[in-house]
Amino acid sequence: MSLDTARFVNPLREARGALSGFTGAIATAGNIGNIFSGIQSVFSLARGAFAPLSEAVKAAANSEDLATTFRTLLGDAQFAAQAMKEATEFADATPFDPEPVQQGYKTPLAYALPSKISKA
After folding, report:
1. Per residue in 106-117, pLDDT tens?
2. What is the C-alpha to C-alpha distance for residues 7 and 78, in angstroms, rounded to an integer?
3. What is the spatial distance between Cα 9 and Cα 22, in angstroms, rounded to a whole number?
4. Cα–Cα distance between 62 and 97 in angstroms, integer?
5. What is the rounded end-to-end Cα distance, in angstroms, of the chain?
6. Tally of CA atoms within 13 A in the half-sphere of 109 that contains its CB
7. Alpha helical stretches, state H, the chain
């Protein structure tokens, strides 16, 4: 007695082949995910490497904004330079972060309170 198992075995083999193709596609998608993860890591490293440069540019921009504010409040570039120097020296003499101290220095100028700087 011989059984013909081909009707049962062939569909199982086809299913196995289709399933292996599917797992291969999943593995490929996983590799693509790893590639994107690697690219993200490179960008994170680059961002970390350029962070000090970014902070320096931000500090320079804030300093320029403060100088522009002083020129506007005092009406003269020479007085503004003197005010900027005075604000920087005062900020450096305090234990605080220099930028907020320098930004706070413009408040008395805005209200025309007396300063070491003369407009004469």
Report:
1. 788 778 765 555
2. 97
3. 20
4. 13
5. 122
6. 27
7. 6-74, 77-93, 98-110
Quote the tokens at residue 77: 């570039």
- The predicted pLDDT at position 74 comes to 83
Please identify which residue in the block is written with the tokens 């003499």: 93
Token pair of 47 as six digits: 């961002």
Q: What's the DSSP call for residue 96? A: S
Distances in Å between the Cα of 29 and the Cα atoms of 13, 16, 69 are 24, 20, 55
| Unique residue bearing structure tokens 């920087």 | 88
* Per-residue model confidence as pLDDT tens digits over 8-66: 667 767 767 666 665 665 666 566 666 677 777 767 776 777 777 778 888 888 888 88
Residue 79 CA to residue 115 CA, distance in Å, equals 11
